[in-house]
């Protein structure tokens, strides 16, 4: 995800814990596509 954001002119401001929770939540099926998109978009920072 970091490389994809960088190539498109962004970085993120997730803490390590927030990033971990996102990855584990998606992998476990507890966070769906819509919710993950909302979480990612709320942490986008233009570089």
Give the SSE order as H and E letters: HEHHE
Kindly give the count of domains.
Answer: 1
Q: What distance separates the N and C termini?
A: 15 Å
Number of strands: 2
- Characterize the biggest β-sheet: 2 strands, antiparallel
Low-confidence stretches: none
Q: Rg, please? A: 11 Å
What coarse outline follows from CA principal-axis ratios?
Answer: globular
Name the strands of the widest sheet in spatial order. 1-2
What structural class should be given to the helix and strand makeup? Answer: alpha+beta
Helix fraction by DSSP (H/I, runs of at least 4): 55-70%
Average pLDDT, all residues: 96
Count of alpha and pi helical runs: 3
Strand content: 5-15%
Task: Summarize the helices and strands and which ones pair or pack.
Elements: H1 2-7, E1 10-12, H2 16-28, H3 33-42, E2 44-46
Antiparallel strand pairs: 1-2
